[in-house]
Amino acid sequence: MLDTTDTPLKALLRRRKPGYSLEAPFYTSPEIFDADMEVIFGRHWIFVGVDPDIPEPGDAMSLDIGKNAIIVVRDDDNEVRAFHNVCRHRGARLVLDYKTTVGNLVCRYHSWTYGLDGKLLFAEHMGEGFNAACHGLKPVHVRSLEGLIFVCLSDDPPADFDVMAAKMAPYLAPHDLKNAKVAFEKDIIEPGNWKLTMENNRECYHCAGNHPELTVPLFAYGFGFAPEELDEHERAEAESYDKLLKASHREWESCGFPSEMIEHLDDMVTGFRTERLPLAGDGESHTSDTRAACRKLLGRINDPKHGALHFWTQPNSWHHFMSDHAVVFSVLPLDAERSLLRTKWLVHKDAVEGVDYDVENLVAVWDATNDQDSTLVGYCQEGARSPAYEPGPYSPHTEMLVDKFCNWYVGRMAEHLGR
């Protein structure tokens, strides 16, 4: 448990200056990393995968959140369940593969056998007084939000997940992720603290100079700009984009696709943000030519030009839902200076590779962007180690959402530590 007395971490939290990046120990200290894992990743809803990761009863997926090994499984009633991946006999891991299909969960050490509901079904040679009912798998709270799977390791998970779910379900439902499939997924190890990965995602100030692929389908004025720096031509372009955004929202919402921005990044425990945005060029998808990457559209969508729905959650995810495919991202901390970025590309479950979509085209934009961002995060991590590092000011026009991420993080840490 965390020490409730005054600590260096509490002092750092107290003196955090709004509108500025965090002090170096937040990115480099193993002690603060341990606190992050206990407070942030141990007590909040963490995005870990999608329903298509475990589409059928008996399908299971394993993952680690810090020291916690987790199993996510679909049971015989088609419900998603989660358990600690720890046998109740002598602690061996039950599921060793990332993804697998099982009839029951069987420990390879001594064959203790659990049902998909976590109940202990078989334990040989345990004597007459042994009570199997007391030795089921330890459950983990799990929720599926229209196909996005979140877990919470706390015994008392934040109740405002229900608020987010109620607001987000109408936005996500048209894309029908439960009837999609994972066409491709990729893990990369980013050489930086998990907060640097998240901060990098929360702004596009860096995009123009670093993401030639990503900026093809994006409008330059969609992620913030300084109005006082625009010339007459640029002001006209910004005004045109604003008109396009408003017109697109009206059109999409008239077709049953909620689009208006909802933002609760730093005023809810389960912080989130969403908005549907128009795409540049042919305006269909996050591809190098901005055309749909998959012929078979998702869910009940019948027009490839319904823009891109963005959905961010605190502390560890961001997602993009287009008419033809979706890309989901999760960040799982490994240590104070390394993070796992897991990306999955989803298409309609009936889409056929090589006929309806080409994997290379499907993944090209975000595969390149992830590699570029990983390099940038590494630069920031190297800088945070330097004695010359000090918190720098965020741009009020293009980095306001980074500031909100830091506000949320500091607020959550401070509340649990009793600042």
TrEMBL record:
Q: Which Gene3D superfamilies match?
A: Naphthalene 1,2-dioxygenase Alpha Subunit, Chain A, domain 1, Rieske [2Fe-2S] iron-sulphur domain
Key words of the record: 2Fe-2S, Iron, Iron-sulfur, Metal-binding, Monooxygenase, Oxidoreductase
The Rieske domain, residue ranges: 45-151
Instruction: Cite the EC number.
Output: 1.14.13.-
Recorded superkingdom: Bacteria
**What's the protein name?**
Carnitine monooxygenase oxygenase subunit
- The membrane spanning regions, by residue number, are none
Q: What is the lineage of its organism?
A: Bacteria, Pseudomonadati, Pseudomonadota, Alphaproteobacteria, Hyphomicrobiales
